[in-house]
Design brief:
- By secondary structure, the protein is mainly alpha-helical.
- The protein has 14 helices and 2 strands; from the N terminus they run αααααααααβαβαααα.
- It has 2 domains: 48-191, Cytochrome c-like domain (Cytochrome Bc1 Complex, Chain D, domain 2, Orthogonal Bundle); 195-336, Cytochrome Bc1 Complex, Chain D, domain 2.
- The chain has helices at 3-30, 55-65, 78-81, 134-138, 147-155, 158-168, 175-187, 195-200, 210-222, 253-256, 273-276, 288-298, 320-330, 336-339; strands spanning 237-238, 265-266.
- The longest helix has 28 residues, at 3-30.
- The two termini are 38 Å apart.
Length: 347
């Protein structure tokens, strides 16, 4: 075999390997079905009639989610703080790191199951997913840009004008379509294929171990009022008794200016905890055991402490064996298919 034939065979081999690697994504895109409600989930609250998810709209949203030109100096993307392998959080950071490595005051919340959310951000103040991206884009510690500058940069790129045309019927890049595209991507970030989901849906003979089942029973007794199934959050804002930090973040009060809202933060979902440490709005707990210890021994009677944490002793009493069993159940909420979904990955 001469060298020319060898080179041809080498390139053919590389081509075959490349095709095989891209086949799952090609198959996903060719069979794009838009938003599909999991059978064990309630009806979403997002108004899809105002923003129907299409293949082109979703692809545009994914492009924008990974576009550094949304930031002032073209270095920070949405995916910088919301990394898919970390269930769209910024794993390892207690608080978010934005442009010029500026530090925020809160932990990056996960992007998942937003179609069922009525309010956004740890401290609320935003009630429409289609307006939520304005905050990170314009915030000094995050992207530090303004929308008109973003649009100017995108208008200069033919790949965006053509994609806006395909998605919305016009090359015009305006706030309405820009926000709708980002929403289409985020709405498709649905985590619903954990072991828990498969057990509940009775798929493929899935079942809990005895320890997981005992943990499930304990969870429903001690945790489910705030972290209600199947989303594992009730979407409310509550004061869970954290010691007030040096930055004195007042939570929901910043948005409402109501004294009754001081130190209340949005109840997070407990899905995908394996990937989303550290925990709480400011990432103060590095491990799940730290969270358990907080509820067991460290709840502080701060202003507006949730009544559920008040009693003869503050907090939620958890024996060592109970922590182990609840942790076993919480592990069934980890959704590996979600964090590895090629459809959600940067292209």
């Amino acid at each position: 075999m001469n060298s020319k034939h060898l080179i041809v065979l080498l390139f053919m081999g590389l081509f075959i390997v490349a095709c095989k690697k891209s086949e799952p994504l090609i198959e996903e895109l060719e069979t794009f079905l838009g938003f599909q409600k999991p059978t064990n989930f309630p009806e979403p609250v997002y108004k899809f009639e105002n923003n129907k998810i299409t293949k082109d709209g979703f692809e545009l949203g994914r492009m924008l989610f990974n576009e550094p030109r949304l930031s002032r100096n073209n270095t920070i993307t949405c995916s910088s703080c919301h990394i898919q392998s970390s269930a769209f959080t910024q794993h390892g950071h207690d608080v978010s790191h934005g442009i010029d490595d500026r530090l925020g005051t809160r932990n990056s919340p996960p992007i998942m199951n937003l179609a069922w959310s009525r309010a956004f951000n740890w401290g609320g103040g935003i009630h429409d997913l289609d307006t939520q991206p304005i905050t990170p884009i314009t915030t000094h510690e995050e992207m530090d840009e303004n929308l008109e500058n973003v649009y100017k940069k995108l208008r200069a790129m033919p790949k965006y004008t053509s994609k806006f045309k395909a998605a919305f019927g016009t090359e015009e890049i305006n706030t309405a379509n820009f926000m709708k595209a980002l929403s289409q991507f985020m709405l498709m970030c649905v985590s619903s294929n954990s072991k828990y989901d498969k057990v509940i849906r009775k798929e493929s003979g899935a079942s809990f171990t005895s320890e997981e089942m005992e943990g499930y029973v304990l969870f429903k007794e001690k945790c489910a009022t705030c972290h209600s199934e199947p989303l594992f959050t009730d979407g409310s804002f509550r004061n869970n008794g954290l010691a007030i930090s040096p930055v004195n973040d007042k939570g929901l009060y910043v948005a409402t200016l109501l004294e009754t809202d001081k130190y209340k933060f949005k109840v997070p979902s407990l899905r995908n905890l394996k990937y989303t440490a550290p925990y709480m709005h400011d990432g103060r707990f590095l491990s799940l055991n730290g969270v358990f210890e907080h509820y067991n021994n460290e709840v502080v009677n701060t202003q507006n402490l949730d009544p559920l944490l008040k009693g003869s002793k503050l907090g939620i009493m958890l024996a060592s064996t109970e922590k182990t069993k609840i942790a076993a159940f919480l592990n069934t909420l980890n959704d590996e298919e979600f964090i590895k979904n090629p459809l959600l990955a940067e292209q």
